[in-house]
Amino acid sequence: MPAPGSHEFTVRDSQxxxxxxxxxxxxxxxxxxxxxxxxxxxxxxxxxxAVVARNDAGEIALLRQYRxxxxxxxxxxPAGLLDGGPEETxxxxxxxxxxxxxxxxxxxxxxxxxxxxxxxxxxEAVRVFLAEGLRAVDTGEQLHEEADLVLTWRSLDEAVAxxxxxxxxxxxxxxxxxxxxxxDRGASALRAPDAAWTDRPRRFDTRG
Length: 208
Prior knowledge:
InterPro entries: NUDIX_hydrolase-like_dom_sf, NUDIX_hydrolase_dom. Helices cover 17% and strands 39% of the residues. It is α+β, with helices and mostly antiparallel strands.
């Protein structure tokens, strides 16, 4: 048996169980250490982007949005799927979502943090940007849950406090808010908006 950390987890067989508009479910038969195999269920999804949009007063834009699986409205960052076609870059998708959901555009964009949402069962990954130099733009027509969005502004300190009181529980918002607070301390330089993204999911995008 190879030493821990050196085994190659190869896929012997893969079957699609379900393929829908925003996700697919497949089962993989994966080789395990010792020569056995195990079945792993994998949810494939588009990648996603989110934006910590900060105005000149230091406030960040938060959206109160209904989320049906949770059954209530959550405070979240402007965000959306990388479903704008193969030519759309992550930062372009973030610019599109910020305009569509919050009616905002920004002149400064930096990569804040990359997230693998729940790597135990899904390849979904999210890139969170920090956007500054904001101005208002037309949101265009909003449909479904987006027609019910409410835009609010919180100072970064208020947003951090809301994370720790449990008011803000959306994982992407929690990560983006806390990452912004750490970045403001100057602990590390933020990456360019087109920085390499190792775990950006692409398998669902290639399905016919």
